[in-house]
Every structure is written in structure tokens, then in C-alpha cells.
Amino acid sequence: MILTNTTVLGTGVLGSQIIFQTAYHGLPVVGYDITAQALEAANHRLDSLVQTYADFFDAGDRAKAQAARESIRLTTDLADAVKDAELVIEAVPESLDIKQATYEALAAVAPENTVFATNSSTLLPSAIAPHTGRPEKFLALHYANHVWQNNTGEVMGTELTGSEAYDAVVDFAERTGLVAIRVLKEQPGYLLNSLLVPFLQAASHLLVNGVADAPTIDKTWKLGTGAPKGPFEIYDIVGLNTAYNISSRGDETSQKFAAMLKSEYIEKGKLGAAAGEGFYKYN
């Protein structure tokens, strides 16, 4: 099984990167989102990725990246988006209810042989599988933010995932420039976020408990470890909506952090680096 025609559901920060990464490596890709406004924002994100990819891969030569950009098709019609899809990668908000409803709608219109892959960063695919209508062709393919540089592709199935679908997604990951990471059993957070989330959570607890402010926590981490970014800079890159969705499901202190994110940042449009401001301001 070779997966070529690809559809990505969700055109937010990471969804747009998945779309561009796929197109840049020569595969046809369609991006789907629920509103024209969302697609307008996606167009801006995709346009900005042209120079990012040109600089990273081609010493500033925009020809290949521009061709990739022009090959991408966007739509708000789900049936149209998946009519030719061999692989659908879902990158909708990190909410189990939203994901389950998305797959129920997707299963009704996707071709019978289409493989489904969730990009969920924390949810187990087995919690979604019953809503897909094809659990043997459903698994997780998790991308890291800044896909072009942090190019891991964590592949994790459920007990019902067929080996053919699993191997095909591993092959797809490798053909689109990722280092395929075979996760051998279900684990919340896979490998990357099993390491990252507790680190970010520790930083958020320090903040909401009044131990130190965000810049001080970041500075301490960077000076003490030599890391290029502190936890709140990472929060801004990940996006504060994602941070909110994860924290709101956590313990009491994590929920306090979620409430702070909502009132002091998200409701004020400070959604992270992609929006120009989160914990920090960006050009």
C-alpha cells in the first residue's frame, strides 16, 4: 500500500505545516477547514512558509517552495476534500469530542480504502478509533512543530490497527521528509510529549504558584542547561490554545494555568508566536 493523495483536516499552525511539508516533498495535498475565514488564515500561513522552506532547504531559492505552495488546494467541503484521498491526516483542535465528531463525519464521505491518521499530541487513538468506521485503517501520526526542522513523525497504532496501514504510514512519513518513529504501544503523549509535557507543566506550576515570572523561568532554564528556548517560549511556539486544551484536563494547578491562559491571553488574541504575541511579542 502506497499512500500518495493526501488530505489534511485542520489548517491551523501545525496543520498548515503538515500541508506544506507534504506538498514540498512532491505529494498532492488538499487542506480542509470548516470556514472561509479559517482558510484565509491558512493562506497567509502557507504563503509565509514559502520563504521558510526556501531558506532552510534551498539557500533562499524560492522556486521549489513556490511550486509546492501553488500545488496546494484548500476547501471547506469535506466530501470534496477527501474524494480522492488515500491518506487523511487529522489536525483539528485537541478536544476528544471534536475529534470524535470529525471522524464520524469523515467516515461517512471518505473512500472505503482511505487510511486515517490523527495528529493528536496527547489523546490515545483507541479513544477515537470506534468513531472512524475503519479501526484497522486508523492510527496516529504525530508531527512536531516546525516540521521542516524538527522532523520526527511518531507512528502509533491501536490493538486494532492493521500492519499494512501502519507500514504504509511509516513509508509515507519517510517519503515526506520525516524520521519515522515507531511507537510500539499506546502511550499518552507518545515519546516526544511524554518528555515535553511534564517539563512544560512544571514551568506552568511555578508561574501560577507565584514562584517566578515567565521570563525568569525561561532565563533560568536556558542559562542552566544551554537549551535554546525556555518553556514559555515553547508554549508560544506550540500555541496557547493547545496549551489551554491540555492544561484544562490536568490537575487543579494545571486548571488554574488554563484559566489564566484563557483570561489573560487567549481572550485578548494573544495566542502565541503565530499570532504575533503570547507570553512574548513577535515581529
From TrEMBL:
Gene3D superfamilies given in the database record: N-(1-d-carboxylethyl)-l-norvaline Dehydrogenase, domain 2, NAD(P)-binding Rossmann-like Domain
Originating species: Glutamicibacter protophormiae
UniProt keyword annotations, A-Z: Fatty acid metabolism, Lipid metabolism, NAD, Oxidoreductase
Protein name in the entry: 3-hydroxybutyryl-CoA dehydrogenase
Domain of life: Bacteria
Pathway: Lipid metabolism; butanoate metabolism; Lipid metabolism; fatty acid beta-oxidation
A molecular function (GO) term: 3-hydroxybutyryl-CoA dehydrogenase activity
Residues annotated as domain 3-hydroxyacyl-CoA dehydrogenase NAD binding: 6-186
Catalytic activity: a (3S)-3-hydroxyacyl-CoA + NAD(+) = a 3-oxoacyl-CoA + NADH + H(+)
One Pfam family per UniProt: 3HCDH_N
EC number: 1.1.1.157
UniProt-listed InterPro entries: 3-OHacyl-CoA_DH, 3-OHacyl-CoA_DH_NAD-bd, 3HC_DH_C, 6-PGluconate_DH-like_C_sf, 6PGD_dom2, Mito_3-hydroxyacyl-CoA_DH, NAD(P)-bd_dom_sf
Record-annotated 3-hydroxyacyl-CoA dehydrogenase C-terminal domain positions: 189-282
